[in-house]
Design a protein that fits this description.
This protein has 22 helices and two strands. The chain is mainly alpha-helical. Among the domains are: 82 residues, no CATH class; 215 residues, no CATH class; 115 residues. The protein has a two-stranded antiparallel ribbon. Strand 1 and strand 2 form a beta hairpin. Helix 6 runs antiparallel to helix 7. The radius of gyration is 31 Å and the shape is globular. The two termini are 52 Å apart.
Length: 626
């Protein structure tokens, strides 16, 4: 969807505003052309550059006109001019680099499948040194653009462009090796395994291919973690604490006669800071190396609500409509305050319901749209872990000469969940395969992969399907070959998972302070800023009352200037700032730790919102008793 909007926007800008820049020599680099070709965007480089300049020009014109109008209304236009300039620079930069960012994102997603692709090449090769069959297996069961490239490699061989599949692997390794050197080395190792004389040396070479790719991923991440230390400190100190210190000092500065602007200017300034923090964090994330690709849950998966819907009280409803309705309903409690209606409730609630309404609405939307997929993903992840264990058990039983049917029965009973009366999903898969063999007279392969009645027809995990596919293919050769293939497959996948978990643990240690800042420190400081503003307002009010008691006239003058931003409005502004900063920082931490996984991003933010809101409210209540 964003790609389609980008294409339409570029064509529209180029069609209507290209004449403005016809006398300007618009240039671009080769990287932009390569990015557009890689991502298959339906635009030309000249259209991208023209759109970037046109968007910047429109931003300057719009905010200049708005500032002029504000000036005639007697307000300060400078913040709006500054914001317009910042927006123009942002649009010009972001539009011009969007294809490059998209290309890098797609490359990272594709490279997340690299260890999996290498494993899928190695597993069948250990049983049969037929490279073409191994490439076909990896292309059929792999995911992402690397699997597409393997399919294309097969077509190129069949079309006569290459003499053999072995010639295409180094080409594929060179294409992706720029981002992860170990993949290129792994492709060469797989090809070299074909010329090994002994079986043991061939197996060792194949094992070395997987080690090369995993070591390369680990090395890349370790280099990135070392690089991450300084940007994280800058993001924490300069990008997070500095704005918060400004927020807490605003009441003091205003109190001593240095009024920096109205509440509108304060809000614009804080949002500009959030934008800068977002851009800087996004720059750091763009340098993140290859991630292990998360499980992809399709929207049509059984049990999931329709796209854009969420389940509330057992019924489906529009996620954004429900969330917006709840947010507005809570925010309406602040209407009496803005209308100047004074009563016991409105005098105490003031602008807080708006902050709570925004938080509850966001929490409801993010949680409602992410929890169903998260539950399905957890179930599939448990199934994958059980499948790895089942592969070991099946391999151990088959190697003793046990038949496949008997091995299925034994492992299904063993994999049953002991803590509850229910059975694991792997047990149900094996039992369904047994029933298909016994009662529907299916062969082993059809009992698992038949489109209508196969035991794996509802399994959305590529890894689960691949392990059982390896099993059925090698069973055609012999039971011993099948047992060895299962054990090899389980070992390789377990090693990939071990490296993945180790890398996540290292990143969690690095980003823990950012998470604490977003959820705990940020709300506390925002609440303290409101408390300080309230203290100064009460100080001025008590001083005025005391002087009036003695018949003296109170004049704030220069040194005791009453701030134009009331504590109630500061509460609203800092509350919105707190939510915005939490969104940016938790997104940053989530992508660092887990990669590009929108479901987990939304869930992480949803988990942080109630904690941050509770700390914000509790701190405000606690200040009432100080």
């Amino acid at each position: 969807m964003p790609e389609l909007l980008f294409e339409k926007g570029c064509r529209f800008m180029n069609r209507h505003l290209s004449r403005v820049f016809r006398n300007i020599n618009l240039e671009w680099d080769q990287e932009l052309e390569d990015a557009i070709e890689f991502t298959k965007l339906g635009v030309r480089p000249i259209e991208v550059i023209t759109s970037a300049w046109a968007a910047a020009l429109l931003s300057i014109v719009f905010f200049s006109t708005l500032s002029l109008l504000i000036f005639f209304l007697g307000q300060d236009p400078l913040p709006w001019l500054l914001f317009g300039f910042i927006m123009a620079v942002f649009l010009a930069h972001y539009i011009s680099i969007y294809p490059k960012r998209l290309a890098r994102s797609k490359r990272i997603k594709a490279l997340g499948h690299a260890p999996e692709i290498v494993a899928y090449l190695i597993i069948p090769l250990k049983q049969n040194p037929n490279l073409e069959s191994a490439v076909r297996f990896a292309a059929e069961h792999g995911e992402g653009q690397m699997a597409d490239d393997l399919r294309k490699a097969l077509w190129d061989v069949w079309a006569g462009k290459y003499r053999s599949v072995g010639e295409t692997l180094p080409v594929l390794g060179h294409k992706w090796g720029r981002d992860i050197k170990g993949f290129e080395d792994a492709m060469y190792a797989i090809r070299m395994s074909q010329i090994e004389k002994s079986e043991s040396r061939r197996h060792n070479t194949l094992d070395r291919a997987l080690e090369l790719i995993l070591q390369s991923v680990q090395k890349k991440f370790e280099e990135f973690i070392n690089y991450l230390r300084l940007p994280t400190v800058v993001l924490f100190a300069g990008g997070t604490l500095f704005p918060l210190v400004i927020v807490i000092l605003l009441p003091i500065v205003s109190f001593i006669g240095m009024e920096i602007g109205t509440q509108e200017n304060m809000f614009i300034g804080l949002m500009a800071m959030v934008l800068v923090i977002f851009l800087f964090s996004d720059y750091i994330l763009s340098r993140r190396p290859t991630a292990f690709t998360p499980i992809n849950i399709p929207d049509w998966y059984p049990g999931l609500p329709s796209p854009g819907k969420m389940i509330l009280f057992g019924k489906e409803g529009s996620a954004w409509k429900i969330s917006l309705g709840v947010a507005l309903a809570i925010s309406l409690l602040s209407v009496p305050y803005f209308l100047g209606i004074s009563n016991f409730i409105s005098d105490r609630l003031t602008t807080m319901p708006i902050v709570i309404g925004i938080c509850v609405g966001l929490w409801l939307y993010l949680r409602g749209t992410s929890i169903p997929k998260k539950e399905v993903r957890d179930s599939l992840k448990k199934t994958e872990e059980d499948t790895i264990e089942a592969a070991f058990q099946l391999g151990n039983r088959l190697i003793t000469g046990m038949s496949a049917e008997e091995a299925f029965i034994r492992v299904a009973n063993m994999m049953s969940t002991k803590e509850t009366t229910s059975k694991s999903k792997v047990s149900k898969i094996l039992e369904r395969a047994i029933r298909n063999i016994r009662y529907l007279n299916m062969n082993l392969e059809d009992s698992l992969f038949d489109r209508e009645r196969g035991a794996l027809k509802d399994a959305c995990s590529g890894m689960v399907n691949s392990i059982f596919r390896v099993f059925t293919i090698t069973m055609r050769k012999s039971i011993r070959a099948a047992s060895e293939a299962l054990i090899v497959a389980a070992n390789h996948i377990r090693e990939i998972r071990r490296v993945e978990n180790a890398l996540k643990d290292k990143l969690q240690y690095t980003t823990s302070m950012i998470r604490v800042t977003a959820i705990i420190i940020n709300p506390i400081i925002c609440a303290l800023a409101v408390y300080i503003a309230e203290v100064f307002r009460n100080t001025i009010a008590s001083t005025r009352t005391s002087m009036g008691h003695y018949g003296l006239e109170f004049n704030t003058g220069i040194m005791l200037r009453e701030p134009s931003t009331t504590p109630e409005m500061l509460q609203l502004i800092t509350g919105i700032y707190m939510i915005s900063l939490l969104f940016v920082l938790i997104r940053y931490v989530s992508i660092l730790e887990r990669g590009d996984d929108p479901v987990l991003h939304r869930l992480e933010i949803a988990r942080g919102i109630p904690i941050a809101l509770s700390i914000f409210v509790i701190t405000l209540l606690a200040t009432k008793f100080i």
